[in-house]
Amino acid sequence: MSTASPARPVANLINQHVSELAFTWQRRLRAWSAPNHRAAHLHEIDSQLDAHLDGLQIAGREALAPAMQRFKRWGTDEEAFAAAAVVGLCATDAADEATRLELDSLLIANPRSAGGAAAALFWISETRALPLLQRWWTSDQRVLWRAAFPACLPNPQVRRPHLIDDALLRSDGSLQARALRAIGEWRITERAERLPAFANGDDPLLREEAIYALRLLGYGERLPHCPAPTLLDRPSRRRWLSAFALTAPADSVHAAFDVLSAHSREREALWLAICRADAWALSKLDAALDGKLATLAAFGIEQLTGLDLERDQLWQRPDTNPARPLSKRSPADEGEHADERPTASAQKHEPKAHLEDQGLLEPHVEKLRAALRNPLRPAAEPHLQGESLPMRLYAASKATLQGEAGALHRVREPLFKLL
What we know:
globular; mainly alpha; about 60% helix; 22 helices
């Protein structure tokens, strides 16, 4: 009686590890935008990532082909993360040069995936990451520079001021923007004199990053007016607005809120208010309870006041919110009064399942407002106190302003490395 070859089940298992490694890293990336995610959720995700990496390292070279095939097929950030991690862990000999060249070529062909490859260097040991880091930084390809630069910053063998000088000399605006950001986030004060020229320059992206860095270094009240960044991606705008809220004068913050709201960027305006964390911010969040972002506004009120929707019974099912009552008309009446209903274009609702709002409780607006105005509630100045992942990033921004270099990097490190 013949027995089935174990090769196929083993190959399937390796393919599954590679697939789930990419998917789990994507979950981790998205978790940082989700107010309902806390450190405990992140620890669970990190443990899963670590388990997949361990399994693939044990598989060795057998893991290289499926990782490269998936990256070649999809070309996404998460597949770049998986491919770079597997290459760093398993392509360790001179015989693996063809695989490393293939990874380089795929990154060059898919420049938007550089962030995933950069993240992979943090998840494998510094010893394993060093060959790829050196290879990419000394190459002549801009995409590879961008993949290497973030991992260079925490490396103890790298002199950060010299790294910044090198990056600013290279002809790549995206890399230069990252270097300017690093001056602030790593508090490289020896290079602070480089920032004003970029902050007053003609390149909008470099101007936004230079202003951000200057804010983190304590120069927030003496900066050119730039209240609403437009070129940064959504996560970058969030950390930019956080630094702005923490450092700009009150009238500038109020004006920026109005500009964002007037340009249909109400979600960013609410995050600006949350990060400002003062009585003015609380009033804006209170007013937003009547709008399409009531769930996010309620989250912000929780952070600023210590109220808890679940503990204090201030939430309800979405279809029972008195601020958005259900119609009591019969179907026949609905047809008769159809012309009275607002059109879809007039309502301008956001997608119902916005990623940020998933998992947040729907506020009972009347009860929440009553609790907010309760004279027995402590009347201390509002301050942020939450442990959600966006609030951890906010706390890291505050730590950076207080002189802690690299706090915004360390807060994103794998949690198992911090235990």
